[in-house]
Known about the structure:
The structure is a homodimer.
Chain A: E1 5-17, E2 23-29, E3 39-40, E4 43-45, H1 55-67, E5 73-82, E6 91-99, E7 111-115, H2 116-120, H3 130-145, E8 158-159, H4 161-172, H5 178-190, E9 194-201, E10 209-214
Parallel strand pairs in A: 1-6
Antiparallel strand pairs in A: 1-2, 1-4, 2-3, 2-7, 5-6, 8-10, 9-10
Chain B binds a DNA duplex through helix 5.
Amino acid sequence: MSAVEVLAGVDIVALRLSEAGRLQVLLLCRQREPYEGQWALPGVLVNGRCADVSLDAAAARALVDKARLQPQYLEQVATVGNGARDPRGWSLSTCYLALLAPDAEPQDEHLRFVELQAIMAGQQSLPFDHAQLVRLAAERLQGKSVYSSLPLYLLASRFSVTEALGAYQACLGQPVQHTTLRGRLERMRAQSWIVDTGEKNYPKMGRPQTLLQHCPQADEAFIFDRSLLA
Amino acid sequence: MSAVEVLAGVDIVALRLSEAGRLQVLLLCRQREPYEGQWALPGVLVNGRCADVSLDAAAARALVDKARLQPQYLEQVATVGNGARDPRGWSLSTCYLALLAPDAEPQDEHLRFVELQAIMAGQQSLPFDHAQLVRLAAERLQGKSVYSSLPLYLLASRFSVTEALGAYQACLGQPVQHTTLRGRLERMRAQSWIVDTGEKNYPKMGRPQTLLQHCPQADEAFIFDRSLLA
DNA sequence: ATAATAGTGTCTGTGAGACATTATGTA
DNA sequence: TACATAATGTCTCACAGACACTATTAT
């Protein structure tokens, strides 16, 4: 090992909303030691020899190279570093939160989605400190969902208010009043972040749903000036 | 350079509130190449040979080793990595925001406080991408000041409402209604985050000031459920 | 008609914004 | 007394929370 350098990488916590309305984490079966054959977060090492122009670019590359998936949202969560997280020695990992569309599907058998709750509850164990990274990313998502439009990045390009409600409830882990969400969506519509497509979805029963479209007007999510569930 | 490892470090944006009520950044005159003799952010390299148990510990060490200062608040802001920021090659830096008490004084001539505004305006240039790191830290502080008690960590152990108001205005860069801040301080008092010491400060003119004490009940700052300046 | 789901309306409570008023010290 | 600064009171507005009510489809 070099005198002044250190092992560093990025790990991606990529989340998808299942049909049942639950959050799922993308895992990859490791092809190399350490922990070969175990299901872990997708990630890549970063060092000068890679073509990455930046750390953020390395994160995007990790998801494209390993899973051929393009996230709808990507945000750096935190960097952890210590001597215990990797058997190869003192190492750094920068954790990213990625939000995928609900139709994101694994391309091969080395990829799998598992329920976020299974990891949080410890039923699904992960190598390295990946369980901790998942916790950090989930906390970030939950925290920002209280005052931003972040959960909308988990939806398909056309979505109903009911689907948006499901996304918020999955991110927050608790029920949300639909009237409150409607108010927020209306405020976003006034600023062109939401467009009413005019199309309708006709479910088996009940009144048809208005289909909305999410049109982010900035890189960051829309910020509301008040918290949910205060 | 090793095949898989990379140069990594932490850099600290340590802020102090001047008597004039303006934010100042702690700079250190570099003792080594690169950029020897230039004023830059204090920081340390991280690698397995150091005794740091974690990246956060390395950040705390950077401030103690280089400036003998203990911050009242320390938070990781972001990690940047690219091939251009350091002349030695592709490198990583994790940026930390530190908030100091107003009586924090440089211990020797290698340390200096400069106005945050001078750096933001480009009047004071910094080596590496340190100006960008300062911007990231200042953005984090400004963002969180809207909905949290973060500015209070810039105050002495006993402080008046007027001083707290100055801290908020410095962090936000705009005026705040004192009645709004009083309401927030009162809500913190109800939850034991603020204590009325009963002591008074008697300025040359005017009604004496109640002296308050900040008693954080958690590692994170107090979060309000509504934004200032919406 | 009935069931099911979508969407609106109404009322309440909280806290920020703005500003007037009162309180308490010094010169 | 006048003056300066601290602290409180009042009113409005925006928006979340709760829940009732209306609307629109299929069977």
